[in-house]
Amino acid sequence: MSIQIYNTLTNKKEEFIPIRKGEVSFYLCGPTVYDYFHIGNARAWVVFDVIRRYLEYRGYDVKYVVNLTDVDDKIINRANELCVHPNEVASKYTEAYFEDCRRLKIKDATCNPKATEHIKEMQDLISLLLEKGYAYELDGDIYFEINGFSEYGKLSGKRIDDLIAGYRVEPDQRKRNLLDFALWKKVKEGEVCWDSPWGKGRPGWHIECSAMSMKYLGKEFDVHAGAEDLIFPHHENEIAQSRCATGGVFAHYWIHIGFLRIGKEKMSKSLGNIYTAREILDEFSPESIRLFFMQKHYKSPIEFSIDVLANAENAVQRLKRCYFKLKELLERYNIEDNLNYNKNTDIIKNFRKEIIDIMDDDFNSAVSVAKIFDLVKVVNEKMESEYSVSKEMHVLKDAKDIFDEINKFFDIIPMTYEKSENTEKLLEILLNIRDELRERKEYALADKIRGEIEKLGYIIEDGALRTRWMKR
Questions:
Q1: Could you tell me where the DSSP H helices lie in 247-350?
Q2: pLDDT tens for each residue of 219-278
Q3: Residue 148: CB partners within 8 Å, gap ≥ 6?
Q4: Which of 9-18, 185-194, 263-272 shows the lowest per-residue confidence on average (mean pLDDT)?
Q5: SS3 breakdown of the chain: % helix, strand, coil, rounded to 5?
Q6: How distant, in Å, are the alpha carbons of 17, 66, 212, 223 from that of 217?
Q7: Which residues span the domain enclosing 441?
Q8: Is the domain of 348 the same as that of 436?
Q9: Which of 14, 25, 72, 300 can bridge 221 by disulfide, Cβ–Cβ 3.0-4.6 Å?
Q10: What does each C-alpha distance from 272 to 262, 276, 349 come to in angstroms?
Q11: pLDDT digits 0-9 by tens, 197-210
Q12: Whole-number CA gyration radius for the chain
């Protein structure tokens, strides 16, 4: 089965056919670095990290570009609030962005171009639009004329007449159309600026992404991604200026994720209902946050609450316990990686194939995650059966292979399990004593030992074969 992607531009699911066989060129609109990013922003970074990794798992060489908007009104306003230079604000929060991404286990992008380092490319693109008659100058400001692009509004499904009727900003009567957008902004007092053929100023937001995406991925590339609130005006304007400048298609597939909500409202800084990603990471594991996002299809809105995140944390612990019990059994029975066994076992045939087929269908992580927990249930049942453990080790080996494979893109199973040798020995002694107490039916004292161990942050599981422990 080929990969199917819902393309916002065509409003339908399409077979994914990259421009160059075996390669994927992928551009994601990155952060405007004026503050710590919130958990709603984190959904975009994590979701597209999973999609990028899944494409790599399916054999594609992915060139993954995530820009950094380090010159913008928000950065300037924040700098004015703090009485510092905008570069200081941008530098601080750029570093914070990378730090928080690493904590979320997000794989490094192929490159992270900064807007301030690509002013020349933006000016060249603006000059080309002026030369072709798609842009015009007004006293040092350069505007794109939307009437020159007949397909304006196709991505968002918006009609120009409706947009004008609903226009709520005080109109600039000099513009040829109220919706014409700025490509270059004449400098205002106290603002950061650059020299240009039209005088000192700075680039508009939309031209930044067009210039940087085309520099690193070419005039036409495979995937352009972002949150759904970027569809209009940002991505709509990107398409207009890029296609008019080059005459090409620009991005072939547009992928947008749904909002993260608290109650019925979108989480946003403007509404003041945010949790920063670093605040959440101080309380919950990165795996639980990633799993939380994966439990919904990327296009669907997702409801955020601390309770829901706590449930995701518990689910991650179930995954972790299953994985490490499985690993322990395989090591104890000395199952080698090169064991000659039938790859067509039911687990391999069903779970691996189903998870891949589901992910191939527009990266449906929600159904895939449900299948993963179905696998956990099957594996746990087999590990509790003495017959399965002794006679079906090849099946358990296959299951571990599946967990290892799906973790290459989901990364929701913690793969490290820290424990000191002395701690392990002491716990084993206590659990052996507890087992003897249970055999003598001294349940009260056995339960007390279990309770005290659990207070120290350990999980105790009584199985048919033996009692196991794991750090919570």
A1: 277-281, 286-294, 306-332, 346-347
A2: 999 999 999 999 999 999 999 999 999 999 999 999 999 999 887 677 676 667 789 999
A3: 133, 134, 244
A4: 263-272
A5: 50, 15, 35
A6: 16, 11, 8, 10
A7: 421-471
A8: no
A9: 25
A10: 11, 11, 48
A11: 999 999 999 999 99
A12: 27
The two tokens of residue 96 are 């914070």
Check whether residue 52 and residue 133 sit in a common domain: yes
Chain segment 71-128, per-residue pLDDT in tens = 999 999 999 999 999 999 999 999 999 999 999 999 999 999 999 999 999 999 999 9
Q: Can you tell me the distance from the alpha carbon of 455 to that of 445, in angstroms, rounded to the nearest whole number? A: 15
Q: How many domains does the chain have?
A: 3
Q: How far apart, in whole angstroms, are the C-alpha atoms of residue 185 and residue 369?
A: 47
Here the tokens at position 375 are 């696998």
Q: Indicate whether 303 belongs to any domain.
A: no
Q: Are residues 401 and 457 in the same domain?
A: no
410 vs 440, more confident = 410
- Specify the residue for token string 């700075």: 202
Using the 3D structure, point to which of 282, 297, 332 is the last residue of a domain. Answer: 282
Question: How many helical (H) and strand (E) elements, i.e. helices and strands, does the chain have?
Answer: 17, 15
Phi first, then psi: what are they for 329, rounded to 5°?
-65, -45
